[in-house]
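Forgive a beginner's question, but would it be possible to get any protein sequence you like and the tokens describing how it folds?
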Amino acid sequence: MKKRWLAYYILSITLFTLLLGFVPGHNGDMSFYIACAIEKEEGPADVLQKTKQVLEQELPVSEYISHAKRIDRAENNILDFYRVKPLYVWMIGLLHRLGFSYIFSTILPSLVGYFCIGLLSFFWISKFLQPVQSFVMGILVMLLNCTIVLARLSTPDSLSQMILLAVFYCLYFEKNKYLIIFLLLFSLFVRIDNFIAALIIITGFRYWPLRISDNKLSQLTYFFSVLLILGITFAINYFYEPDFWWLKKSTSQFHWLQSFKSYSSQLAGYLLEFSKSLFPVLIIFFFIIHSRKRFNMNQKTSYLLLTVSTILIARFFAFPLFEERFFTAFCVTGLLLISERINEFITTEVQG
């Protein structure tokens, strides 16, 4: 029965993925990721003009005008913000060489990431719910705004969130420690700012309450993992950027770094956007079930929720840019952990 509902689920999310492929977002970042791919293939000369030519060929006139204006208004070092996602830029170039248009090459990785998030969610849910319930809840996860947005945008965010969700899945269900380390290192090539999550997760893994002692992270492995995370982060910024300190000069992307007032305003905006997300609802449910006398939060769940919370707090201060799509893996993880605990509590109440 489980295999049958898995087949139904795969068919459903395949259909969702195909449908979302027909309604791409064509977001503003798309042009600059294409520019980075062209730059990598043909060199930096007139790269933005070449990008406009590509967009003129592949977009309707009204959309082309909007993107062309955005390119014309961009600051000189605008591509610095996009070069530090090398894996995504490389994938765009590869897909284009395989015969896809540049625009579809930017959206295909997002669709793949969306599909894989759906699979991971189902496998997680099916460990504590029956097949029919797993199917329904998995579909609901795929219909969350944050997951749908990921699928429609030309960004590396879908791949990034897929990898982070895979890390949380492997951590929670005690998969091989070297697989977890590999995924964390791999995530840095998708989005360099994943170094924050990677450092916190690897530190949490060091003290993780494991049942399998052989999978425990030794002090030496932890030390070398941290060095690798920092080394790869440094190397990406060093080898893919003409100026190592480009971030301080990017007034459009990181305007909040220019003054304390701008930074304070950005923090306030972050909190306002956070309040509109699913996180406050999850926090309320957590405190409701945690307040019940017969409810006991197991140690593994507590550790993972603490890890997720620590990452959210660290990103709040380091990069106060809140768009729910940046936090899909954390949102889905929190949702599944709390749902599992609610299911466990209800089962205990009924049996008791």
